[in-house]
Amino acid sequence: MKTETKKGAVLSSKEGIYKKYIKRPMDFILAGIAIIILGPVLLTVAILVKIKLGSPVIFKQDRPGINEKIFKIYKFRTMTDERDENGELLPDSVRLTKFGKFLRSTSLDELPELWNIVRGDMAIVGPRPLATIYLPYYNDIERQRHDVRPGLTGLAQINGRNTMMWEERFAYDIQYINKITFWGDIKIIFKTMLKVFKQEGVSVRGTARVEDFHKHRMEQEKSTFLIDYSYTKGGNKMLLIDENIVLRAIEEKDANFLKDMINDPELENMVIGWSLPVSSKIQAEWINNLNSDDMKFIIEVNLIAVGMASISSFDFKNSVANLNIKIKSDEFRCRGIGTRTIRILINYCFDELNLNCLTANILEYNNPSQKVFEKCGFKKDGVLRSRIYKRGKYHNVLSYSLLRREYQKCER
Prior knowledge:
This is Sugar transferase. Pfam families: Acetyltransf_3, Bac_transf. It comes from Pseudobacteroides cellulosolvens ATCC 35603 = DSM 2933. This protein folds into two domains: 215 residues, no CATH class; 188 residues, Aminopeptidase, CATH 3.40.630. It is built from 15 helices and 15 strands. The strands form four sheets. The chain has a nine-stranded mixed β-sheet, with helices on both faces. Helix 1 packs across helix 5 and helix 10 crosses helix 12.
């Protein structure tokens, strides 16, 4: 039996029962037990904070909870109150002591949040509560992280803790809230304890190189996309990010996904250049022998692979390249993913590669692709007659192009 949430996500009856009736009572009981068992640790840390950092021992700050309701989060203090000659607080990096760094790296400063869990402000597992200043900068998908209680730990924390890029963190948050299960929570709790013990994926909060989210989003809005790494012949990964859509370099793990795409006869009929069928082994060999002069990407939406995109046929002498995208199934088509993907590629080609012209070749009967490229400003140059053999006969291919000056004029 399945039920549908207000966001349209489908949950099994077991998932719905756990989330609705079991998760909160279990959090209350476990947090209460943890406070009793860890009482000596809490007392010891409190005394050390008092001696080394002074009063108050507990740091309180506003954070958005479920449905963006503001609550006070409790943590052990990790910084001094040192001020400059004008009475202004010194930067966090100066006030964060060696002892404070130890508390943060071991997550001991988070222990008072157990009281937040008992009060009902938080859960043991859920998206981490972030600063209230970030609230105006979330997009609609990212804002869904507030549909549940924030957690002491979460899916993002066991996949990198506080060293990940913001979009990746939020994608893990959305993945979690779309499938909240008992065993999923248990797994996250145990993996968190292992991470803390091994000190994996940790950069001490306040010293990490990941910038504040509101600053990150403002910079992102200036350029409409973000480049994290350079795509080189050396094999470095590249990410092009626009909100919840990520274009990343193809990896060996994508062999099965690409095999399924290529072996889909319906999709094969709509694209140029594929032949049926291929095996996982053949696809893996293809990935290992990718032409480094082309840029090929996996299209991900909320960490789910939905298609493939490429920038190829580079002619740097004349500043020209060809764009191509393929979306796997009807489930992900007609949702704006193709249009947004093409715009990410256009921005990268014109702004970073400084190209002058982009081209695209589309089968004459592939009307959906024609509409998507035309929506992005591409104009039809002409017809390549009887160029592709599919469906038992030859078909025309339509040639499209977009000039840099045309796109810039359209953007203005």
